[in-house]
Amino acid sequence: MKIPSVLLCLFSLLFITDAGATALMQWERLPLPVALHVGHERVVMVNKNVRVGYPAGLDGKLRIQSSGGTVYLKASAPFPDARLQLKDMDSGALILLDVSASDGEALEPVELHYDNAVYGNDATAHPAQEPDDTPPTTALPLAPAPVALTRYAAQMLYAPLRTVEPLAGVREVSPRLPDSITTLLPGAPVSASPLGAWQLAGDTVTAIRLQNQGAQRVTLDPRSLQGDFYAATFQHPWLGASGSPEDTTVVYLVTRGVQADRAILPEPQNTEKR
User: Fold this and answer.
1) What's the CA angle centered on 70, arms 181 and 129, to 5 degrees?
2) What are the DSSP calls for 84-149, one per residue?
3) Is the pLDDT score of 36 beyond 70?
4) d(CA 265, CA 181)
5) Other C-beta atoms lying within 10 Å of the C-beta of residue 211
6) pLDDT of residue 201
7) Side by side, which strands form the sheet with 70-75?
8) For a Cys staple, 254 with which of 18, 146, 164, 223, CB 3.0–4.6 Å?
9) What does each C-alpha distance from 15 to 86, 96, 118, 157, 239 come to in angstroms?
10) CATH class entry, domain 5-114
11) Count of Cβ atoms closer than 10 Å to residue 183 Cβ
């Protein structure tokens, strides 16, 4: 599969049930408090490729999963403030979270925002620059087109329509794929079927439903996908055994200049002789 490695680090899906209910936090080198409620997973959208460090005292109390710039935290028991260290694998900078767990209902996702002037824990992460007197130019989009397109597709599938963030120029297109795709992950016991596709300028994102057909957990790796894609993002990093609540997820495939039917390997022809 042809995917630039930098894109595998860049993309992060922003899966939210209500776009207006996301808690925004600004990282300014001060530890950010993140409350957890026992038994409920809370999503922290870091939007950076991070590795999570945690104190040994949280073993057995906190489940931590990190994938594509999003960190998933689920407490199994109450605990007081404990510090998580999120290391940016690209710059080496640290982001600090002070997490605590208590009883309560599910909490909204958290999304981190950054000011490049203060991002990082040392001067080498983002060196100070002289003031720029150049007149400001037109603001750039908050995210690259493939990232914005992937996020839009995820919201179209999982968020109430009234909460979907508008994306100028996007249009829904036909996936132009068979109902069952056997060539996307040929080495895994996983069925694949198209859910929808959206296009923005020359980029197309196609959502593919993946379901585990086997009895063993399947770890999802973008490098195992067969095809010529600009980028790929999984909603979850693994699939549970068939029949479990975790046996299904979605992969979002971004192609440039063509749609997924030209990027995914064609289905094998029936060569059986009569």
Assistant:
1) 125
2) EEEEETTT--EEEEEEEEES-S----EEEEE-TTT-SSSTTTS-------SPP-PPPPSS-HHHHH
3) yes
4) 9
5) 14
6) 86
7) 23-27, 110-114, 41-45, 70-75, 62-67
8) 146
9) 20, 22, 27, 10, 17
10) mainly beta
11) 15
User: Which residue, chain included where needed, has tokens 């936090």?
Assistant: 25
Q: Which helix (H) or strand (E) holds 274?
A: none
**Nearest residue to 49 via CA among 9, 17, 84:** 9
Please compute the mean of the pLDDT values over residues 71-80 and round it to a whole number: 93
Count the residues in the chain: 274
Question: Is residue 129 pLDDT above 60, yes or no?
Answer: no
Determine the 3-state secondary structure of 5 from DSSP.
helix
Q: Average of pLDDT values for 201-217?
A: 94
pTM, two decimals, is 0.51
Q: Would you list the domain boundaries of the chain?
A: 5-114, 145-263
Query: CB within 8 A of 34, min separation 6: which ones?
Result: 42, 44, 73, 97, 98, 99, 100, 110
Q: Give which of 67, 103, 61, 112 is closest to 82, Cα–Cα.
A: 61
